[in-house]
# Entry
Amino acid sequence: MRQSTLFLSTLRDAPSDAEVISHKLMLRAGFIRQLAAGIYTYLPLGWRVLRKIEQIVREEMDRAGAQELLMPALQPAEFWKESGRYSVYGPELIRLKDRHDREFALGPTHEEVITTLVKNEISSYRRLPVTLYQIQTKFRDERRPRFGLLRGREFLMKDAYSFDATWEGLDQSYWNMYEAYRRIFDRCNINFRAVEADAGAIGGEGGTHEFMVLADIGEDTIATCSHCDYAANLEKAQSASVKITSTEVKADKLEKIHTPGVRTIGQLTKHLQTEPQDIIKTLIYVADDRPLAVVIRGDHEVNEIKLKNYLEAENIELADAQSSAASTGVPVGFIGPVGIEIPILVDTAVGQMQSGIAGANETDYHFRNVVPGRDFTVERTGDFRNAIEGEACSRCSEGVLQFFKGIEVGHVFKLGTKYSETLGARYLDASGREQTMIMGCYGIGVSRILSAIVEQSHDERGIIWAPAIAPYHVHIIPVSIKDESQTRIAEELYDRLRNHGLEVLIDDRDERPGVKFNDSDLIGIPFRIVVGKHAESGKVEYIERKNNEKQVMTVDDVFSRIFEEVRLSS
Ligand code: 9G3
# Structure
């Protein structure tokens, strides 16, 4: 490709609303342009990379035995009404009407469509298992699209769906996809972790993993063990419940203490000269309109996902101050578990305290020597808190949990019969009995991978692409197109490399060298050949973008060096 004709304009500065480096660099390097909030055009360079990522996904899906198809983005609302999700999703689901005033949704995902399709096509166990996938544009009207392609309103997703006759079959389909995902992310050269995750709204019978690209701007926090391979999204991560000495220390009797205006943990620890872990904190939540008290240790935080899953509640939220006071009769800060009327859930760590300090359910008073199980019931106890970095691993209990920020680029779910039940995807088993298909679903954010790679692979001068997904393999830069020997050598190399199947960009613009080199650094093509002052002696400069290593060598040597490097990296 000749840069003099390439549809590309690089920018010296990124627009101010670009906050993260991948968004800034992809705008400046001319890979994407915003049409509207969360809606982007992939310019030729960006599109070339996106297609390579797509191709890697496709090859590994096919290798895993999945079959590619393409479903419509326009989905009749009836299917969403049948699955019961039409009313579950709010403004994020883009709804529209056709010319006959019929209701449609722009597909944010395709469980309803694929399950209806398979229901109509398969009725015998002989046709199972099958895994179908597509690579297609999804629409989700995010309230706050941001970070460029990382959280868009229109984005490219690979979504796959597996259909099995048995739960063992689902397990095989699930791990088959899981392994394919590892191959995909390895081939994309990203540093990722597969972590145990929470199934979220999609539900399903247990079992879900997220594939996280490690990056500081990632919205998710993942906990990994320093010793074993335990890794989980913080939504789900568990630390080892501290084994406490079970010596039956005789606890003193309950003692009410006057603590005027002492409401927060901070005030309490100062006032009583104690530590947060000696305090029993009581928070009032409302789960599906029912108030309940959640009791955790003063140095811990409630994990609302764990709470919601334990209660199997549709909706959960922290009560505000006045509704807390309304349901307990005391102002926030003096609420405690002793003698409280509403149901209480006690975090495991509190159950293991010998005694603590808690609100006395009376304004300006607390209790000392509160003993869980003696002074309040610990019948309903569980893990309701966030794990803390540095705590012991719940799996091996030798290592400690380390926290990282991650960008979710993949998510695999065991759905079970959640959709096949409501949508009636059934088949006849070997003995002619009707059974419900057992499903899994598997997503990869293809366009999100583009940004995630840039987040992980850039330097202060621009993007650094690995050969497998770079827009071009080689960037040839004749320093001056007016110099006959430079252009001759550059053109000869351009032809030779392309004739051998490499993708080459030649900067044949009549531009100052500095402009050419800055643009080349920004775009990030892995191998660069500068044809400059050494041209008279038949030599060129070979530069690798990833380490900026420069070497002068003959045309023949640079040719074989590049071939070797591209062969090694693909
Ligand atoms: C919606 C809207 C947004 C959504 C969903 C539905 C996320 C929704 C979860 C999934 C689960 C899997 C198949 C590929 C892998 C992920 N956001 N999810 O279901 F209506 Cl507006 O999409 N789907």
